[in-house]
Here is the input.
Amino acid sequence: MFVVRGGRPLRGRVSVSGAKNAALPIMAAALAARGTTVLRGVPDLVDVTTLSQVLQSLGMTVERQADGALELTAADEQRCLADYEMVRRMRASVCVLGPLLGRRGRACVSLPGGCNIGHRPIDLHLKGLRALGAEITIDRGYVFARADKLVGTDIYLGGSFGSTVTGTCNVLCAAVFAKGTTTISAAACEPEVIDLGRYLNAMGAKIEGLGTPLLRIQGVEELNAVEYTVIPDRIEAATLLIAATMAGGRLQVDNVEPMHLAAVIDVLRMVGVGIEIQGRTVCVTAPERIRSVDITALPYPGIPTDVQAQLTALLSMADGISVVTDKVFPDRFMHIPELMRMGANVRREGASSIIGGVKTLTGACVMASDLRASAALLLAALAADGESVIRRVYHLDRGYESLEKKLNQVGADIVRVADLPETMPASLQLSDEEQQPLAVDSSDSPPPPKFLSKSEFARHRIK
Ligand code: UD1
Here is the structure.
């Protein structure tokens, strides 16, 4: 868990790591390459370790080199099973489905199962793969997919909540091996999908239209391994910019692709933040007070759902009322009750939260429920008066490389401690007096409640 002493402004310079959500599908796509792939900028995260284990179980060697590069080689191409024990730890493991089917013609991948941010089916992934000619059955919690030869076709991949990011990745990785031409319409336009497409093209794939909802793929026989560098993590960058806005101060964030953050930067400017952009650096100056604003999380280029929780934490300190809606994951609001333990004033209404801004948040003991919720709680703790304890920060370790170290280098006070009750800071313990039962003062206290008689009850009854 983290013990955070709030109220310290952030000043200095931090650098953003490579994007988790780009690295994971790219690592999975290395399954389909001939030779040794060298990936640079892959962050050192629990999710990367988990996917490395999945890939090793699928006959890959995966090694982190001294210079930080990740080397992957398909040593045994007979294996096709991604086991439940691994997939349940990280649903992005499902990204191996498309590459396995495309290259090895078979895949047996556990269905990912439940998730804290809402219902997350993979029906669109399966629809796309079936359209390419794969035979797919679901049995005992596993997806069994088989195809002697995939055949190019026209696929519509939109769903009730818009496009699918990992679904587009899976269908793309299979379609690059399909005979003839495939088109994918309503494809996801996220920068991470573009990055995967560029990586596949560098290996010899023929994909056009990356970054648009219409992809056109000309099938090829083989992909040859290459060296590739993944894009910077736009969600980490957004989290750092919001951290400085909430804690106060001035922070320079390096290794950012500002285009990827256009929607987040727009929100920050609307709430009063000073933003300067120079090349791949974004400098943020916190305002005296934060203005309220209504925002909606949407597929790219909209505000990312992965920043919704952090922006909710920010707007909980704004002057006035804000409405935050999530149209990608309409149930992604687990962070709200915990933010309320820190003094936030938030009411949930369907896919929205209505936030009445408060002047200050106060330190409290809170529990992280998922990756981005834990980031939101950490940001709230940095801005809060007093000390906070954040439990279950293993969620944070899944997706942020050295976040507490980076924040401590620019002025935060975050200490990682073992999750033991005795480490609760004294400032969060109740005093002896606060723990006493309320004393009953018979002179001032109101008379005890009187039960209604039968006739009184009849008079009060709603007719
Ligand atoms: C990816 C990201 C995740 C991010 C999400 C939305 C990775 C590893 N994870 O997740 O961090 O929050 O995109 O930007 O890249 N849906 C269906 N059927 C499907 C697939 C999805 O109905 O077959 C729905 C989902 O329930 C959700 C919406 O579509 O409501 C978007 O989900 P999707 O883009 O697939 O999310 P992921 O790829 O799982």
